Amino acid sequence: MRRVVPRSLAESGTTVVAVDTNAFYGDLELRHSAWRSTLLRCREEGYELWVPEVVIQETVRHHARKLDVAIRQMRTGLSDVRALGLDEGLLPGREELEAAVRLKADGYEERLRSALREAGARILPLPSTPHQSLLERAMAESKPFRLKSQDPENKGPDGYRDALIWLSIAESASTMTDRDLLVFVTNNHKDFCDEGQEDPSVSAQLLADLPHPGPQVRRCADLRTALSLLPEPIEQSSSAVGPSAEAGPAIAEQILELVEIACEKTLPGMSIEAYDGDHSTGYSFGDLPLPSAMENPTIEYVELYRDTLEWAVHDVYEDGTQLATVRVEADVQFDGFAYKSDFVEGLDVHDSDWNDHMMWVYTTQRAALVFNATITPQREVADLTFEGGDQATERDS
Question: What are the boundaries of each domain within the chain?
Fold first, then answer.
């Protein structure tokens, strides 16, 4: 039986991170810290990122669907504004606006492929497995084909694309040895893993597709967990590890300016974490005690406490690029809806009679906002991305 690595990292050899489609779902533009760190690691010796061709095509399809949903929601919202007669001279025509949005989104597939290629990722071709072999696996209900005999309602896809994803990884792993580590990033444990384990591993049926002796194998549900298995970034000279004393304040000012812009223009309207199938559809606020009666919460307003800004570099790479975690405290107003019968203390009311069943409610809480910043070798903050939030520290409450 294939050996599943019990420790954090292979002692020597190559570490390969191969990703399933769900690794992209929460960050289609590859802007958050997990993907940024992953792409930067691709440039380092002894580390490879594999993205199966099927994963690329599924991700592009998911992006197109998300775009269609966003445009439909925009269309509905604009229709409501126009119905009130409030759009004269303020809004472009519907067709013009939708065309502009689609034009901006056009070329997503090439942008995605380009970002992966530039980082040195390997896009795996479709497997050469004969159709007869795939048919036999499907008829035998071998993983990752869905066990229809155990799923009388026949829910979910039949596993064809999952089979192509895994077999492309297995073929590419044919030259890996027991000195190497293969990390498979997927939260689809139902199709790729054996059940009955607290943290299910890749199924023994699938491990049989790998060479013997072959790589040690570890499954991670997300990229952030996979990154925790990897060695620290290549060490730099002391001058490259962090900003100089003179540069620090200047960087802090740049970060604060970008945080203020995000709090004013980007965060309002953002959804708070919920789950759609196997992936998150919003931003996590960790242990922040939002009332459970509030449904579909969104961020409505953010008031920063500027003097609470903290930032720290967590990754430094060969060219001097740095990734930093930024944390700042704020009062955040969350809006949502609550059933009239479920109303609890801790919620304030915008409209107690939103409809026959629901109230429009809100709550304001002190929270810690977390961002990820990219700092160039020239000590410029090139990008700031919202990662989520958590409870404010006790000393700042």
Answer: 15-227, 238-396
